[in-house]
Amino acid sequence: MLKKIFLVGIGGGIGSVLRFVVSLLIVRIRFPIFPLTTFVVNLLGCFFVGILVGLSLKNNWLDENVKIFFITGFCGGFTTFSSFSLENFQLYQAGNYHTLVLYILINIIVGCAAVLLGYILTEFF
Q1: Which residues contact 113 (CB under 8 A, 6 or more apart)?
Q2: 56-98: per-residue pLDDT in tens?
Q3: What is the DSSP string of the chain?
Q4: Model confidence over 16-27: pLDDT tens digits?
Q5: CA 20: distance to chain centroid?
Q6: How far apart are CA 56 and CA 31, in angstroms?
Q7: What average pLDDT does the segment 14-38 reach?
Q8: What is the pTM of this model?
Q9: pLDDT confidence tier of residue 125, bands split at 50, 70 and 90
Q10: Residue 73: predicted pLDDT
């Protein structure tokens, strides 16, 4: 178990640093009406996790430690949106379409509401 925790930590650290570097590169592109940095990072993370899951499921190329390092650690550190997207893909694959739609809506609506609530609470400090 300690090895898995270490793999997630190292992968997550690398993913977080890479997210920061990618953000620094993208922020140079002036696109004021759209959060381009987050969009690109999320898109790259989702694309990479799709490749990893595909290799793992179709070819059985990745052992458990490699999946933990890259999918949970690296992709999780790079963008948690990739984890969210993977969970949605898994719900789709399992045929849980109602849960899929509900999960997407709840995450977006409750997530935005949590940001708003957190912001509102700062008015009291």
Answers
A1: none
A2: 888 787 889 999 999 999 999 998 788 889 899 999 999 999 9
A3: -HHHHHHHHHHHHHHHHHHHHHHHHHTTS--TTS-HHHHHHHHHHHHHHHHHHHIIIII----HHHHIIIIIIIIHHH-HHHHHHHHHHHHHHTT-HHHHHHHHHHHHHHHHHHHHHHHHHGGG-
A4: 999 999 988 988
A5: 14
A6: 36
A7: 85
A8: 0.75
A9: low
A10: 95
| Cα angle 80, 29, 113; round to 5 | 40
Q: How far is CA 53 from the centre of its chain?
A: 14
User: Which single residue is written with the structure tokens 């609470």?
Assistant: 121
CA distances from 48 to 28, 61, 80, 93 (A): 23, 15, 12, 18
Structure tokens at 66: 């490699």
Residue with tokens 């793992």: 56
Taking the C-alpha atoms of residue 108 and residue 44, their distance in angstroms, rounded to an integer, is 20
Can you tell me the distance from the alpha carbon of 107 to that of 69, in angstroms, rounded to the nearest whole number?
A: 25
